[in-house]
Amino acid sequence: MSADILAGIANVLGILAALVVVSAGLVFVERRLLGFWQERRGPNRVGPFGVLQVVADGVKLLFKEDWVPPFADRGVFILAPAIVLIATVLAFAVVPIAPGIGVVDLNVGILFVLAMASLAVYSVVLAGWASNSKYAFLGGLRAAAQMISYEVYMGLSLMGVVILAGSFDLRAIVAAQADMWFVVPQILGFFIFAVAGIAETHRLPFDLPEAETELVAGYHTEYSGMKFGMFFVGEYVGMVVVSGLIVTLFLGGWHGPLLPPVVWFVLKLAVCLAVFVLLRAALPRPRYDQLMSFGWKVLLPLSLLNLVVTGGVALALDG
Amino acid sequence: MLSVARTLWMVLIRAFRPPATRDYPEVKPQLAPRYRGRIVLSRDPDGEERCVACYLCAVACPVDCIALQKTEAEDGRWYPDFFRINFSRCIFCGLCEEACPTYAIQLTPDFEMSEYDRGNLVYEKEHLLIDGPGKYPGYSFWRVAGKAVAGKDKGQAEDEEPPVDPKRLLP
Questions:
Q1: Mean pLDDT computed over B8-30
Q2: Contacts of residue A36 in chain B, CB cutoff 8 Å?
Q3: Which of the four pLDDT bands, split at 50, 70 and 90, describes residue A319?
Q4: Taking CB atoms and an 8 Å limit, are A41 and B17 in contact across chains?
Q5: pTM
Q6: A72 pLDDT higher than 70
């Protein structure tokens, strides 16, 4: 009994530590990869290959003045950056990493993830509202519109997977992919989920809430010090969560030949994260109305089509 | 859609190209000999200061960063009592080098002169003087100039004809 509890605690703490460390390390990895893809070197000064750049950045952020503007809504202003980190870390709790490794197995795993992703919107909106400045507010508005509309297709694109696996439980979904990864029958759902996931984490092609060419820094314009750092890390945690979901739902989770399950999961996760960075390196930011019309006029019909066709085929095969 | 895939591919294969970055502190850049960097005062082949304290450089300087004081040696040669360049003002335009009639002041291919203390950027004559003739070996102003100094009277310089006596009527 106590061994079970100890194993559970080790699981929770280990996954939490790994998630935070990977997310912080992503700051460095992203800058280095961007460097490679832009024919330059990226940060390579601090420590071997520049890996200690993360530590240097962290120390710098910690020692920055943690300033709350006098015109801001103080309580909400302080609360907002915590929400994004809490919501995204909680979302990662249901992601099964390998047999026996994973924080919790919910039978409504997918719904839980979607709920947490919705909660993360509050962070951005509240940050924009509490900052009481027009750039932050515009960023918050955009974030609200973008994330709420992209959540619709995010949920819809996953329903195909749920139909195929017959369960909301992420472990059951991974188990259902032992023979064939869901990326093959659900290729459309895969692309829609990937696009919605990028929009959900407001990563670069869809980073309109913080479009620095128009909105200074968007919703975190007024933030400094470690409060800004939490938004920053929260974005990378969100990246890891979405990549983990893509791996779990479409790329067969821990399934793979020869190598142990954990290694397969980490490998797939790394490839997903690299693709995230590649998208940032390659693609320009669309205009705001283009983003919205692409979502509602292209992705929504496509995801509905995907849902109907998958349901129909599943029914026909069943009957 | 296809253009997006093409863009992604083109950016991806860039990872296999050598970076355009030059690793500056480890690999020094190749500077041209005429690069306009740190200013020096050169000496003539005899090892004497070339500067004759004519003030032309100080006049030409657009930011007034050169200060000097003329004084005269016992043999009649002019030289600067002090010669001071404030490198925190200098814009390295090279106009002083162009103005100099004796090739004394020269700009060199060296730009690594950062200091923590602003005052250390004010260079005095002993900091500016170098041992050699710089970019113009063999040139000695006093050997070719018409000015009379001890040991060399009017008309005795290289390629100089004896002075004409304006009071004589003979051709």
A1: 85
A2: 14-15, 19
A3: low
A4: no
A5: 0.76
A6: yes
Q: Which residues of A touch B22 (CB under 8 A)?
A: none
Report CB contact under 8 Å: A281, B11: yes
Average pLDDT over chain A reads 84
pLDDT of A231 above 70? yes
How many beta-carbon contacts under 8 Å exist across A and B?
Answer: 35
Task: Decide which of B20 and B81 is more confident.
Answer: B81
pLDDT tens across A125-158, in order?
888 888 888 888 888 888 888 877 888 888 888 8
Which residue type does A304 have? L
**% chain A with pLDDT above 70:** 99
Quote the tokens at residue B109. 């291919």
List pLDDT tens digits, range A4-33.
788 788 888 888 888 888 888 888 888 888
Most A CBs within 10 Å, among B9, B12, B17, B22, to test the A interface: B12
Q: Searching chain B, which residue's CA lies closest to the CA of residue A45?
A: B23
Contact of A225 with A64, CB cutoff 8 Å: yes
For helices A261-282 and A225-249, what crossing angle results, to 10°?
Answer: 120
Does the structure show a pLDDT above 90 at A88? Answer: no
* Whether B17 contacts chain A with CB within 8 A: yes
- Side-chain half-sphere of B167: how many Cα atoms within 13 Å? 0
ipTM of the complex: 0.71
Least Cα separation, residue B36 to chain A (angstroms): 28
- Find the mean pLDDT for residues B112-123: 91
Q: For chain B, what percentages of helix, strand and coil (3-state, to nearest 5) are there?
A: 20, 15, 60
A262: tokens are 């954990």
Chain A contact probe: residue of B3, B7, B24 with most A CBs at under 10 A = B7
Which one has a higher pLDDT value, B149 or B109?
A: B109
> What HEC string does chain A produce?
CHHHHHHHHHHHHHHHHHHHHHHHHHHHHHHHHHHHHCCCCCCCCCCHHHCCHHHHHHHHHHHCCCCCCCCCCHHHHHHHHHHHHHHHHHHHCCCCCECCECCCCCCCHHHHHHHHHHHHHHHHHHHHHHHCCHHHHHHHHHHHHHHHHHHHHHHHHHHHHHHHHCCCCHHHHHHHCCCCCCCCCCHHHHHHHHHHHHHHCCCHHHCHHHCHHHHCCHHHCCCCHHHHHHHHHHHHHHHHHHHHHHHHHCCCCCCCCCCCHHHHHHHHHHHHHHHHHHHHHHCCCCCHHHHHHHHHHHHHHHHHHHHHHHHHHHHHHHC
Q: Which residues in chain B touch residue A41, judged by CB atoms under 8 angstroms apart?
A: 19, 21, 23
Distance CA B80, CA B78 (A): 7
Report how far residue A60's alpha carbon sits from residue A48's, in angstroms, rounded to the nearest whole number: 19
